[in-house]
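Example 3.2
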Amino acid sequence: MGELQPRSGSLGDALARAANGGRLTADECLAAAQSADLLQLAAAADAVRRRLNPAQVVTYVVGRNVNYTNVCWVRCKFCAFYRVPGSDAGYVLPLEAILQKIEEMVDAGGAEVLLQGGLNPSLKIDWFEELFRTVKRRFAGKTVTLHALSPAEAIYIARISRLTLSETLGRLRASGLDSMPGGGAEILTDRVRHAISPYKDTADEWIDCMRVAHGLGIRTTATMMYGSIDTWEDRVEHLMRLRDLQDETGGFTAFIPWSFQPDGTELGGSRASAVDYLRTVAVSRLALDNVPHLQASWVTQGPRVAQIALGYGLDDFGSTMMEENVVSAAGCRFTMPIEELERQIRAAGYEPIRRTTQYEPIFGPKA
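Structure, written as tokens:
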């Protein structure tokens, strides 16, 4: 693919520079987000995607989302999933129920357990250590990756267990934690976090948790939940903070932007449009020039929009999920079996490749 030629004006020059391997400043990212033509953004972002991932393939992972508890005391205004401690609707999944869900995933050729839940005061580090060790024993010899615990969960486990974050993550890794999802980032500006999740960790604490995890050799993803009360200035600050940490540690494998789902939440509001999603994806790909992969959020946007977004910088279709409870609690219920996921990728002109959590290719299910 030839170099993208500059268009008139400094913004066109900046996008051409990014497409051809240069780095955008925060101001240039903001100008691109607010002013660039959508197709111009797409062309530049697709050029970055093809430079980082030149093969005509789109990867995906067969995994299962296991929400081990819905009990959470922080009462985030954007969440419809949580139940406060003491609620009759609160739950903690029994160990055997978790193992059964993983067994079903393995039987379907799955490899990734995305294990997340609420900040439950009754679950200290020993509960997670027992769970992780049991999973690893039960599925010894199988490819089962524990992609588990967002920074918010890890930080809270450390606090209620009276441990440092480094001690907590070290013990969890020793008991079977393979990698961490980037959930709970929301928007990494304290202005937004104070408004939508005032009792959760700060932006600095989220970043520091990821820094500690990367220092211990735990690879992670990163996310951004946009479309609540955030502005483009907030989104760009979020992206710059991720880029700076990636320059420092190199520990992020992928970035996943997803849109706020308002139904049933205290915050309320309206859903971000497909155009906003495409613009956000493209700007993210341009800004995060050091993060190797960008993952679709078909759970929130639907498969058709995710398919279109493959031309806006995405190179990964995410997980088959098998089940999803958090955004579905807010009224978003897109689901997709493996065969349909692969059909969507092929229809967009790419070859689907099954992968591990660490983006290693898997050519078919493992025995």
